[in-house]
Amino acid sequence: MKNKKTIRAAIVGATGYGGVELIRLLQAHPRVEITSVISSTNPGAEIIQGFPHLTNIMLGTLDAVDPQLIASKADVVFLATPAGVAVELAPQFLQVGLKVIDISGDYRLKSPELYEKWYKRTPADAALLEEAVYGLCEVWGMEVNDTVRLLSNPGCFPTAILLGLIPAVAAGWIDLNTIIIDAKSGVSGAGRGLSLSSHFAEVNENFSAYKLNKHQHIPEIEQALTRVAGKPVVTTLTTHLVPMNRGIMATMYASVAEEARTDADFVNLYNQYYEDRPFVRVRKAGTWPATKHVTGSNYCDIGFAVDERTGRVTIISVIDNVVKGAAGQAIQNLNLMMGWDESTGLMFAPMYP
Amino acid sequence: MKNKKTIRAAIVGATGYGGVELIRLLQAHPRVEITSVISSTNPGAEIIQGFPHLTNIMLGTLDAVDPQLIASKADVVFLATPAGVAVELAPQFLQVGLKVIDISGDYRLKSPELYEKWYKRTPADAALLEEAVYGLCEVWGMEVNDTVRLLSNPGCFPTAILLGLIPAVAAGWIDLNTIIIDAKSGVSGAGRGLSLSSHFAEVNENFSAYKLNKHQHIPEIEQALTRVAGKPVVTTLTTHLVPMNRGIMATMYASVAEEARTDADFVNLYNQYYEDRPFVRVRKAGTWPATKHVTGSNYCDIGFAVDERTGRVTIISVIDNVVKGAAGQAIQNLNLMMGWDESTGLMFAPMYP
Amino acid sequence: MKNKKTIRAAIVGATGYGGVELIRLLQAHPRVEITSVISSTNPGAEIIQGFPHLTNIMLGTLDAVDPQLIASKADVVFLATPAGVAVELAPQFLQVGLKVIDISGDYRLKSPELYEKWYKRTPADAALLEEAVYGLCEVWGMEVNDTVRLLSNPGCFPTAILLGLIPAVAAGWIDLNTIIIDAKSGVSGAGRGLSLSSHFAEVNENFSAYKLNKHQHIPEIEQALTRVAGKPVVTTLTTHLVPMNRGIMATMYASVAEEARTDADFVNLYNQYYEDRPFVRVRKAGTWPATKHVTGSNYCDIGFAVDERTGRVTIISVIDNVVKGAAGQAIQNLNLMMGWDESTGLMFAPMYP
Amino acid sequence: MKNKKTIRAAIVGATGYGGVELIRLLQAHPRVEITSVISSTNPGAEIIQGFPHLTNIMLGTLDAVDPQLIASKADVVFLATPAGVAVELAPQFLQVGLKVIDISGDYRLKSPELYEKWYKRTPADAALLEEAVYGLCEVWGMEVNDTVRLLSNPGCFPTAILLGLIPAVAAGWIDLNTIIIDAKSGVSGAGRGLSLSSHFAEVNENFSAYKLNKHQHIPEIEQALTRVAGKPVVTTLTTHLVPMNRGIMATMYASVAEEARTDADFVNLYNQYYEDRPFVRVRKAGTWPATKHVTGSNYCDIGFAVDERTGRVTIISVIDNVVKGAAGQAIQNLNLMMGWDESTGLMFAPMYP
C-alpha cells in the first residue's frame, strides 16, 4: 500500500509510550514502513502481548537489539529509550550505516559536563555530541537535511517552552533575567516504568510538583535560549504532574521591553516568526490554548497575556507530550531529513474530547 | 488534495461531540470533502469559536439549517442531532435530493409505537421508518448500498452489544431467555449539553447507574436480536456512567447451549462470523478487551469467558462510543453506500495511552 | 484526650491503603489509641515518610513485626496485609494474648480446600478457620462479642454484594439459580503495590474487566449466601476496574418470586431487615445510589429496579471499599467486640464532591 | 448528643459545594447545631433531594431566605453564596441580630472601587466593608473575637497564597517587585452551577488557564500583602484548572534577599511564624506538599526551594479549596469568634488516597 519511495524504519524501546506512539504514527505514514520493533527486555515476544490495542495492526514479534540485523532490515532507527541507552546504542547503529533519531536526552546537550551534572550519567562521545543535530523543527529545521546522521529530538518540556519563548527572545522583547517557567505535564511523560509516583491512586485527584530546580531539561532550555539570545540565559523551571494521560502546558513569565505593549503585538510577532510552519498555531489576542486543544496531534498552540499593571507578559504554550513532545516531532525530523514536506503523515486533527 | 472521485458532505449538529468527531474523521477521509457545517443554534459563528482545537484545520462559519442551500453544496448530509430533530429534518433533506445518514435514534425502530413509548416523542413518518436501512455494518452491511437514501446509524450501546451477541444468537448457542446486559459508558455519550449529571465534580470519582430498564436503546437491541433469532427476544439492560471521556464496555451474560463449552469455541465461532470484517477483533481465549484498546478507533473488540460452574458465558464487547458508536460507523456506512471499501479513511490505530 | 476506657491498637500493614485508612479512622475514634504501627518492609522508618499527609498527626516510627513487643503495647491488632500473611501472623498474635482483626481473606473461608483452590496458597490452620468469626456486622453482628479472639473482616466486594442480596435471599424473593453479579471497583482496591494494571496512564481513561469467574471473593460470597439460603448457591461474578480511587458498585440481577412485584416491595423488605442498623441506607423506590454518595464513609447504600418485562430485579449496592469494605467495617467489628455502640467513631458524613 | 454550650447555625447556599461542606463539617462539630439550611432557589425541597449522600444524616427541608425566621432559629449564619448575594443579605441578617460569616468575596476588599472594578458588581455598604473582619486566621486571628459581627472569610486562592507568602514578606526576605504566582485549582472551585467550562468531557484529560491578570482574587491578595509589607505590592497571578475535584496548589516565585540563602532558612522562618498554629504544616527542606496531602482536611502545607543559580525562591502552598479555602476556615473563624479553640471540630486527618 505504501508508496515506492518509502524508507524502512526500526523502533527501539517499543515497550514504552514513545515507542508505541511511533508505531501508531508511522503505520499511517505514507512513506515509511516499520520493519523492526525492538526490545531489549522481551525479544521474541509478540508485539501485541504488551499492547493489545495493536491487535491486527502490528503483527510479528519483538526483535533483539542486534545492530547488524537491524541494519539489514532498516534505513533509520528511532531510539525511544531511557536516558543512557542511546549513549551506548547510537554509535553502534551509526557504525552499521543506520540513520539514528534519538528521542532521549543523550545527545541534546553539547557539553558533556552539563550532561553529567544534570543526568548523573556518563555522557556520550564528545564528537558525536558535536555532530548531533538538535531537531527543534520550527527554529532550526533548516539544519535538518539529508546529511544528518544523528538527530537529537528535543525534550517534551523544552519543545513547549522553547516554541513559546524563542520568538520573543529573538526579538529582544523580554528581559532575559526575568524568565520564569511553570510547567505541567500529564503522567504519560513519566513513561511506562512502574513507580509510586505513577501509581494510579497516588496521582489521581492529586496535583504535585517535582524536581524543583533540578530537572534535566533546564540545561537543554538554557542552551537553546542562549544560542538564540547570543548571551547566557538562566531560567527558573518548576515541573508539575497533572492527573491526566497526555498534554503539557508551560506557563511562562517575563518582564517585557518597551516595544511590546499588547497581546496583539505578541500575536503578530509570533505569527511572523512561525509563518508557513504548519504545526504552530498562535491564538488570537485574549484567548489561550488548553492542552486538550492539541491532544493526539503534532500542534503547538501559543497564547499571550500582557499585564499593564506589572509590565509582564504571560505566555502559554501547549503540546501533546507524546506527539509533538516525542514521536510526532521525531517523524517531523525524519521528514526533513528525507527532504519530504515536514508535515507528511502528521496532518491529523486533535482528538476532542 | 482530495481524490477527484470525492463526494461533498454536510454535517448538521456540529456543536456536539458526534458532529465534531465527524469533522475530525472526514477531513482525513481521502474521498470526502466537508462542504458545510451546520448549526441551528449558532449559524454565522466561526466553527473554531466553539472548538478551538480545529484552528487552522476547519475554517469558515456555521451554516444555518437550509435544505436548499445544503443541497446546493453537498451530496450527503450527516445528522448528528438530539432525538426528535431528524424526525423533522430528514424528510426535508431527502426531498431536495440529499442522501441522509442519521446518527440519532429517530429512524432505528421500525415501530412508531415503540419509538413513542421509549423516546416519549412523536415518531417519524411510518413510510420513512420502513425505508430507513439500519446500518450495523458487520451484520447487515449487505443492505447498505447505493440505493439507500436514508441510513439509520445504530446507537452506541446497541453497536457494542449487538456485535457481541449476534453471532452467538445466530448460532443458537445461548438461551434467549437469559440475556442480561450490564453496560458502561464514558461521559461523552451524554453529549455536550449541560446537565448536573455531566458536571465534572459530580461525575469525577464517581460511578453511577441510570435509566434502569428504561433506556431507549432497549427496543433497538431487542428488535435486532429478534430479527436474528427469528423469535421475540427480551433483555435486561443496565447502563452506567464511567468517569472517563470515551469508551463503552458491554458485559453480557447468558446461559450457554450444550455445543458451546469453551472460550475457544466462542472465539472460533466469532472469528468465522466476522471473517474479513476489518473492524471486529475477536480476542484469543483467556483475554478480554479494555475500552482503552479501541480509543479513537473504529474497532470493536470482543472476548469471552465460559464458566463451567454456572453454565454461563460472559461476553465482553468494547467500542469507542464516539467513533464506532457514532461518527466512525456512520462513515463506514457512507463507504458502503458509495461502493467503496468499508474501511476507507477509517484504518487508523487506537491512541494509547 | 482519649476517654479512660480506651483500648490500645496496633496496625500491621501500615504501608498500604487499608492500614493508612485505619490510622485516619482510629486516630479520631474516641475509645481507641493507636500504640503501634507496624511494617515488615520498612521498620524504623518514620511513618510520615511514606505518608506525608500524616505530618503532625501520626508521629513516630514503624515497628517491626514482633509479637511480644506488640503484645506489650497493644490489646488488639489489625492485620491489613496481603493474602497469606495473616496465615502466618494471626496464630503468633493470638498466642501472646492479642485480639486479632484480620482484614485479609485468610480466615474468611471455612474450607481450607476452597482457600487453596481460589487463593492458590497454603490455608490457615483448620481449627483457627473454624474459630474465626466472619464479621458482616449487619447480618451476623450478634456473633461478634467479647469472646471473639479472631475476627475475619469481610472482603470489599462481598460486603457490598452480600448486604445487597441477603435480605432478598433470606426472604426467598429471588431465584437462587439466577444470581448474576456485575461488580465495579475503584483502583485503591488493588492496593499500593506497583503493577502495570495500577499504573496511572494504563488505568486512567480506561475501563476493564479482570479475573472473570476466577475472583477469590466468589467462594466467600457463595459461602455466605449458602448459609443464609440453607442450600447451595452458585453465582456468576465479573469484577471491573473503574478509573477512580474509591468506591465499589455491585449491580446484581436475579429473577424474582411472585410475591416481590415492585420496587416498593423490595424497599420495605430491606428497610425491615436493616431496621436500626445505622450504616445501611435503603433508597426510596425509583432512585439508586452512586458510589460518591458514600465516599469516605461507612455507609452501604442500596436501591432496586424490578422490571415487569423480564421478571427480574436489579439490585444496586455501593460502598467505599476502603471504609465499609475494609478499615471502617473492621472498626465496626472492634466496637461490637468491645460491647460499644457499633457506630462509635464511625458516624461521619460522606465527603462530597 | 451535642454539648450544652452549643450555638445554632444557619447555612445559606446549601445547594452549592461550600454549603454542603459546611453541613459535613458542622454536623460533626461538638459545639454547633445546624438549625436551618436555606436555599433561595428551592425552598421547601428535601435537603437530600439535591444531595442524596446526606440521607439519614441531614433530615428536613430547605428554608426560604427569611431573616426573621432565621433569627428565631439561629445565632450565626454562614453565607455560602455567589458574588453579589451577601451584599444584599448580610445587612438584613445583621439587623436581626445574627452574626454573619460570609464565604463569598463581597466583604473582603476594603475599597468599594476595587470591588466594582474586579467583580463588575455593585459593592457593599462602605461602613460594613470597614467593619468586616478579614479572617485569615493564622495571620489576623487575633482580630477575630466575640465582638465581630461580620466575618469575611478569605478566598480559596488567597488563603493558599497568603499563607505561603506572608512570613517571607513580613521578614523582608523577598523582593516585593518580583512576586509571581502560578495557581492551580480543582474543579469544585468553580461551584455547582452548570457551565461548559465545568462540563466533564471538556475538563477531564485537560489542563487550562483562565482569567489571566483578571482574577478577582488579585486585589484581595495585594491588599493583604500591602498591609503586611507596609507598602504597595503588585503581583502577577495566573489561575489554572486541574482535572480533579478538590485541591489548590500555589507555586510562587520571588527573588530572595541576602539573608535567606537556603531552604532550611525558610523552613525555620515559617516554623517560627506558624508556631502553635495547628493547621499550617511546614515541610522539611527538600520536600514539597502535593494537594492530596491535605484533601478533606483544614491543613495548609508549605514547602520551599531556593535556587542558587537564579537567586529565586519557589514556594509551594497547598490546601483543600472546599475546606481550608472555604467551609473549614469559616468554622475556624467561628471557633475564634466564640472564644473556643480554633481547631474545635476540625482536627480530622486528610483522606488518602
TrEMBL record, chains A, B, C, D:
Record flagged with keyword NADP: yes
SMART domains, alphabetized: Semialdhyde_dh
PROSITE patterns (alphabetical): ARGC
Swiss-Prot/TrEMBL keywords: Amino-acid biosynthesis, Arginine biosynthesis, Cytoplasm, NADP, Oxidoreductase
Keyword NADP: yes
EC number: 1.2.1.38
Catalytic reaction equation(s): N-acetyl-L-glutamate 5-semialdehyde + phosphate + NADP(+) = N-acetyl-L-glutamyl 5-phosphate + NADPH + H(+)
Subcellular compartments: Cytoplasm
A Pfam family that the UniProt record links to this protein: Semialdhyde_dh
Gene Ontology biological-process entries: L-arginine biosynthetic process
Active-site residues, Swiss-Prot/TrEMBL: C156
Gene Ontology terms, MF aspect: N-acetyl-gamma-glutamyl-phosphate reductase activity; NAD binding; NADP+ binding
A GO CC annotation given for this chain: cytoplasm
Domain Semialdehyde dehydrogenase NAD-binding: 8-147
Primary location: cytoplasm
Pathway(s) served: Amino-acid biosynthesis; L-arginine biosynthesis; N(2)-acetyl-L-ornithine from L-glutamate: step 3/4
Family membership noted in the UniProt record: Belongs to the NAGSA dehydrogenase family. Type 1 subfamily.
UniProt-listed HAMAP family: ArgC_type1
Described purpose of this protein according to its UniProt entry: Catalyzes the NADPH-dependent reduction of N-acetyl-5-glutamyl phosphate to yield N-acetyl-L-glutamate 5-semialdehyde.
UniProt-recorded name of the protein: N-acetyl-gamma-glutamyl-phosphate reductase
Source organism of the structure: Paenibacillus albiflavus
